[in-house]
What does this fold into?
Amino acid sequence: MSTAASTAEVSDIQVGAPPRRQLTKVFKALSDGTRQEILRLLEGHQRTVGEIVGNFNLSQPTISRHLSVLKEAELVVDQRQGQNVIYRLNDEALSASMRSFFGQFRSCQHSLR
Amino acid sequence: MSTAASTAEVSDIQVGAPPRRQLTKVFKALSDGTRQEILRLLEGHQRTVGEIVGNFNLSQPTISRHLSVLKEAELVVDQRQGQNVIYRLNDEALSASMRSFFGQFRSCQHSLR
DNA sequence: TGAACCCCTGACCCAACGGTTATGAGCCGT
DNA sequence: ACGGCTCATAACCGTTGGGTCAGGGGTTCA
It folds into this structure.
């Protein structure tokens, strides 16, 4: 038992951390350049779908699909506001996913606070 | 300018950070459960292909292709040793990718050292 | 109610992905 | 040189993924 935790024997997984299936969803969501770009757009600002579409040379349905993938991965949150639907980053989920995956690797723990 | 760097005005991108195309490769590589599992196997130990195959109910060629995807993403490094080929984690690339992507988001910067 | 706007969903197409089997290349032992 | 072991690659197949266009549901305003 090298790095044994307190009570549980196999406790690689932190409490409150996303389960593995969800983590795979997250990486699938991040594995597309357009979706990465969308996340960058949402950093800081919340934006309507139309605003997001305006930043790409892609059709509105295509962006809508990307957004639903990001929502499924819980990386973004949407909220209806009149005619518009506003998307914003789900900050907690983003950093939780990051910590839960990369925390498994010694070389990354150095970089985690 | 909260965490402004020295000279450059727009320096979201760290020096020595992987370019975006490479980052997408990394997330694509991470977006498969088997490949995530392989990385966990390689944490700490280096292993031969045969040892890795022994941990899955998948054929040797399948694992071999997964390994080549991970290698393309520079998440692992291989090295011939006699009959065997030994794979090990590429620690630097892993943590560099993590920092370079998640560093873009305020909510994640809190967790980065 | 109806028109206009914003966005999502369905149906479809082609490319990419993950799995398989078969085969071959590279390295050892005898 | 040969046989056996390890691993990678080629060819193939079904599924998933990302794109399009067409259409429809929700909301606002007159």
Summary: Chain A touches chain B through 32 residues (CB under 8 Å). Residues 28, 32, 34, 58-59, 61-62, 65-66, 69, 80, 82-84 of chain A lie near DNA strand D (CB under 10 Å from a C1').
